[in-house]
Amino acid sequence: MSTIRADAARYDRVAIGLHWLSALLVLAAIALIEVKGWFPRGDALRDGVKLWHFQLGVLVLLATCCRIAWRAAGRRPEPAAPRGSRQARLAAAAHGVLYLLLLALPLSGLAVLVAAGKPVSLFGWELPLWAEGSKAAAKTAKRLHETAGNLMIALVAAHVGAALWHRFVRRDGVLARMLPARGAH
């Protein structure tokens, strides 16, 4: 099978670390919101799970801002697929939507709390509310957040599927670019 282009080097340690940190945070946030349904409304455990889901969302937002800043600084390898190819366009579009969702999900989660007039606690710090509660606004924000969350789940599955396709079908080295290097100094 073909290999990646010689000029398509690996990502650096910072990019790899931020990628995997983001992946773990997103998967944990998804797992927590799914676990929330195991507990009845009003249960302290359910409220605790929701709080941790929000806290992880904030960390996702921070990690994403760091990723965007690192990427904007020009610290990334050339795309593995030839520029302008269908594969390159598809990969760029998928990554663009993933980044958009990595920003939109935490912000829409915050919008749900603010619109509902609920207190917003960030790792023990109480943040002031910017608006009084509105059931209609909270319902709309929640719908948007859940829709974006479902899209994120689908895109994460597609992203993992594409990485595995590159690894086991194409055998082109694309996945290895984002894996931590073995024995690296």
Automatic annotation (TrEMBL):
Domain Cytochrome b561 bacterial/Ni-hydrogenase: 10-180
Domain of life (superkingdom): Bacteria
Membrane-spanning residues: 20-39, 51-70, 90-116, 151-169
InterPro entries, A to Z: Cyt_b561_bac/Ni-Hgenase, Cytochrome_b561_oxidase, Di-haem_cyt_TM
Entry GO CC: plasma membrane
Compartmental location: Cell membrane
Record key words, sorted: Cell membrane, Electron transport, Heme, Iron, Membrane, Metal-binding, Transmembrane, Transmembrane helix, Transport
UniProt keyword Hydrolase, yes or no: no
Topological category with respect to the lipid bilayer: Multi-pass membrane protein
Protein name: Cytochrome b
An MF annotation (GO) of this entry: metal ion binding
Organism of provenance: Azospira restricta
Named cofactor requirement(s): heme b
Family: Belongs to the cytochrome b561 family.
GO BP term (any one): respiratory electron transport chain
